[in-house]
Amino acid sequence: MKVSALSPALLGLVASAQAAAVASSIQYSTVTGYFLQDETATDASTFDYTAVNFGLINRTYPADQVLKHQGKDLSQWERFYHQVQKLNTDSDNDVEYKVLFLGRHGEGYHNAAETYYGTPAWNCYWAELDGNGTSTWHDAALTANGVNQALIAHNFWQKQIDEQNIHTPDNYFTSPLTRSLQTANYTFNGLNLPHNAAKFRPLVKELFREGISIHTCDHRRSKSYIKNLFPGWPIEKGFTEDDELWNGVTAETSGAQDARSATALGEVFFAKSTKEEAFVSVTSHSGEISSILRVLGHRSFSLKTGAVIPVLVKAEKVKGATSTTTTVSWTASPHCTVPPVTSVTACVCPSSAAPVTTPLVTDV
User: Of the listed 82, 105, 110, 219, which one is catalytic?
Assistant: First the structure.
């Protein structure tokens, strides 16, 4: 069932996105040939970014012709950095290249619960609860395994800094959900960064959150909670105290999420001094990263918890373009009111408990 009533916060997001689209829009594309993850032969289910230099392909670049006269023996990542610089230098003002490091959060308690209950039962009953009396997964925190996955990323970044002299992110962004905040902190806090590198001070950004479903793990906590959890981290302007997007009844469609992702990317590209700040970290979620990849025209590439995918992106302003989107489509999501009878592929509520589309409240 399509739902036309939108929250004031969501209406504000839609209005701002449409207003920006009237003046100009941004066309995104993935520049392939640089990372193994771009290639159809690379199997996402078995890919380990820590085993293959983040996936950076060992190859030559046009920028190497300039570098060879400097008499320096540069690493692959150093040469790639100069190639990105060259792409930006050679492009006009309406074109910009950035390298996005899209990192999925480590395992959260919601991930562990879904594995325990099975996806059908999780989706139509357990995910609508705050927890089960043993674990809490409302705005889920990282499990011990999730912390370890983030520390693996931390150690790999340090190895790349020490051995490859990788250009670390010029800007950091993170979803406001707890598991992403924690992952960003475990991954980047305490790194021995290169001289003159940008400090790790991530901007908490609402639109990089997970796809908004009726699951309580997608219901973010308050702005005050985030400030207390990580004092000193900037939170974007307009960020509301309470979550005005999640209501426990309606869920984003893929199209609505992609529109949101495009808006978020539009606030990352073409900012002040943006061509000089071409390396960007975004700590987010599986569904949101999949959405970003769709917006960028990248092939589908599913990330394991804690994994990272770098993408070289070309963004081009298209002046005078107008938006064709008039509404954001959301759907009502029915769920069981008691634990379901499940099969391998579907969820079936007991005959005595018909599915409902109201928030599930129960004592557990």
Answer: 105
User: Taking Cα atoms as reference points, which of 100, 200, 195, 209 lies closest to residue 154?
Assistant: 200
Please say whether the beta carbons of 337 and 353 come within 8 A. yes
pLDDT digits (tens, 9 = 90+) for 121-160: 999 999 999 999 999 999 999 999 999 999 999 999 999 9
**Residue 42 burial (CB count, 10 A):** 15
Give the CATH superfamily of 2-107+142-333: Phosphoglycerate mutase-like (3.40.50.1240)
Q: Is 298 a catalytic site residue?
A: no
pTM of the model: 0.91
Token representation of residue 202? 């991530």
Cα-Cα-Cα-Cα torsion 222, 223, 225, 229, nearest 10 degrees, comes to 140
Tokens of 33: 């040939």
Is residue 210 among the annotated active site residues? Answer: yes
Can you state the angle between helices 286-296 and 254-266, rounded to 10 degrees? 70
In angstroms, rounded to a whole number, what is the distance separating the alpha carbons of residues 212 and 257?
8
Options 206, 210, 252, 288, the catalytic residue: 210
In angstroms, rounded to a whole number, what is the distance separating the alpha carbons of residues 225 and 235?
12
